[in-house]
């Protein structure tokens, strides 16, 4: 019991003094957040280290932040969540293999408040991420979209469904999005342009968007979807 008490005391002291040694803007931002959320906030809002402040101000590396994202995605089983939310059995949606897209969210329209470029790879990352699953029955496309944040508890889940006969196009786009990025030298946000990739389903009078990482998988998946749409409308 004595050893456990000392360990807990040391953990509490670390958390306390770590918070005390942080700059004022970070102290304010981490109030009321979980330990992991606090680490994410520090990753976005501060330098990797501060002079003469040692390990108490250690930041997540880009790789460690990517690991947090990957662990969250892998353990959450979003495919099953999608099936449960839409209310489908996998046997009902076997027209083609289910497709999933994912990617960071940028821009004020997505309520993203934290973003930065990687220190080494210079790739953009944000505090918000989106997972989308698409399922294909003989007559419809069913969509589940889940957006969540690593710096707070906010999340947004939505579902859509479209008949093949109403869909006019599956497409991708790359847009330049103005996003607030923290400037630690000036101690304020600055608007920076970040390239954001989206997948789009177009129907008369409406467009569905979701975040997309362009890679070999997404290219193959979209080509398969386009082939199925041509078949259904042919």
What does this entry look like structurally?
The chain is built from six helices and nine strands. It is an alpha+beta fold and 234 residues long. Strands 1-4-5-6 form a four-stranded antiparallel β-sheet, with helices on one face. Strands 7-8-9 form a three-stranded antiparallel β-sheet, with helices on one face. A two-stranded antiparallel sheet has the order 2-3. Strand 8 and strand 9 form a beta hairpin. It is elongated. The relative contact order is 0.13.
Query: What class would the helix/strand composition place it in?
Result: alpha+beta
What gap, in angstroms, lies between the N and C termini?
73 Å
Instruction: Indicate the radius of gyration in whole angstroms.
Output: 21 Å
- Biggest sheet overview: 4 strands, antiparallel
The number of helical segments is 6
The CATH topology annotation of the largest domain reads as PH-domain like
Instruction: Quickly name the level 1 CATH class of the largest domain.
Output: Mainly Beta
The poorly predicted ranges are 48-55
Record field, number of beta strands: 9
* Series of secondary-structure elements, N-terminal to C-terminal: HHHHHEEEEEEEEEH
Please indicate the count of domains. Answer: 2
Portion in strands: 25-35%
Helix content: 25-40%
Q: Which of globular, elongated, flat, extended, rod-shaped describes the shape?
A: elongated
Mean pLDDT equals 84
Please identify, by name, the CATH architecture of the largest domain.
Answer: Roll
The largest sheet has its strands arranged as 1-4-5-6
């Amino acid at each position: 019991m004595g050893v456990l008490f000392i360990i807990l005391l040391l953990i509490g002291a670390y958390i306390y003094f770590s918070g005390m040694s942080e700059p004022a803007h970070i102290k304010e931002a981490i109030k009321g957040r979980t330990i992991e959320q606090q680490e994410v906030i520090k990753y976005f809002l501060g330098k990797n280290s501060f002079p003469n402040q040692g390990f108490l101000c250690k930041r997540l590396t880009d790789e460690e932040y990517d690991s947090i994202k990957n662990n969250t995605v892998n353990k959450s089983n979003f495919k099953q969540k999608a099936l449960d939310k839409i209310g489908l059995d996998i046997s009902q949606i076997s027209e083609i293999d289910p497709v999933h897209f994912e990617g960071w969210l940028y821009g004020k329209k997505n309520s993203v408040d934290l973003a930065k470029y990687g220190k080494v790879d210079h790739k953009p990352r944000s505090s918000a991420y989106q997972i989308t699953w698409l399922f294909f029955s003989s007559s419809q496309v069913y969509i589940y979209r889940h957006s969540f944040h690593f710096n707070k508890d906010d999340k947004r889940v939505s579902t859509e469904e479209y008949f093949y006969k109403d869909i006019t196009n599956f497409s991708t786009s790359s847009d330049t999005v103005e996003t607030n990025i923290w400037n630690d030298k000036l101690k304020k946000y600055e608007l920076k342009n970040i390239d954001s990739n989206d997948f789009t389903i177009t129907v008369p009078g409406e467009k569905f968007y979701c975040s997309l990482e362009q890679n070999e998988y997404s290219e193959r998946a979209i080509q398969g979807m386009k082939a199925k749409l041509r078949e259904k409308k042919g």
